[in-house]
Write a structure and sequence with these properties.
Layout: E1 5-8, E2 13-16, H1 21-36, E3 39-47, H2 49-64, H3 72-85, E4 91-94, E5 99-102, E6 108-110, E7 112-114, E8 117-119, E9 122-123, H4 131-146, E10 160-164, E11 183-187, E12 191-197, E13 200-214, H5 220-235, H6 237-240
Length: 241
């Protein structure tokens, strides 16, 4: 923990906590991002009822391999499929040449909350891995992040990032992309919602999502189309797998 200095201002006592370590690097990175890019956030909801049941069916098989199967690897799989349809979301802006770099590989950053701040290890070549392999890698990277044993290369090379806001109970947010990536997806808390389907009332599992993107690279219409395709993959298990 950083050394805390107790002082006072005109109104009373205060504490001064030095900005150090991971939090300082993160702060500098975020400042660079918001000073450079023009960020906008698009929000929507995804019906993950069928995915919920599919995950429940697969949890035992995953556990036998030492894997804790969350929704995150399914989201990563769906993201890769959607990114292939929307290459401008899997990109970076070259500020020096004013060029958009469309990346032909799919490395998905996973934001991990640790004691010192936020760390983003990266699942490399996610397009070449199945759901169980992605889940195992996310689990390993998260454990390494929390034990401060990540290699520098574990945190480099992302093309798109996911942050799980819902793990702490939130629903929507305006996350900042992992610069120079042009977009990030925030996942909210899955909740039960009453939905009319074919004239009948059903209770469905709903996942709120927040897509923050650099408006210089693509606009709101493309963001909406991207999220619509992401919804299509997450709502149709056969299409996703």
């Amino acid at each position: 923990m950083p050394r805390i200095t107790k002082k006072y201002d005109f109104f009373g006592f205060v504490e001064r906590v030095p900005l150090r370590s991971v939090r300082k690097v993160t702060a500098e990175h975020m400042i660079q991002a918001v000073r450079t890019a023009a960020y906008v956030t698009h929000m929507d909801e995804i019906d993950v009822t069928d995915l919920w049941h599919h995950r429940e069916q697969q949890k035992t098989a995953a556990a036998e391999q030492g894997i804790k199967l969350t929704f995150l690897p399914f989201v990563v799989k769906a993201l890769v499929a959607a990114l292939k349809l929307h290459p401008y979301a899997n990109a970076a802006m070259d500020e020096q040449t004013s060029e958009i770099i469309l990346k032909k590989y799919y490395n998905i950053g996973i934001a991990v909350d640790v004691e010192d701040g936020l760390i983003v290890p990266v699942v490399k070549i996610a397009d070449q891995k199945d759901v169980f392999a992605i889940a195992k890698e996310i689990q390993t990277l998260a454990e390494k992040a929390k034990t401060k044993s990540l290699d520098l290369m574990d945190m480099r090379g992302s093309t798109f990032t996911v942050t799980n806001i819902g793990s702490l109970g939130g629903m929507f947010a305006t996350p900042i992309p992992n610069y120079p990536d042009v977009a990030i997806l925030g996942l909210g808390r899955i909740y039960d919602k009453v939905v009319p389907i074919n004239g009948k009332i059903e209770i469905r599992k709903i996942l709120p999502v927040s897509l923050t993107f650099d408006h210089r690279v693509f606009d709101g219409a493309e963001a909406a189309r991207f999220v619509n395709d992401l919804k299509g993959f997450l709502e149709d298990i056969g299409k996703l797998l």
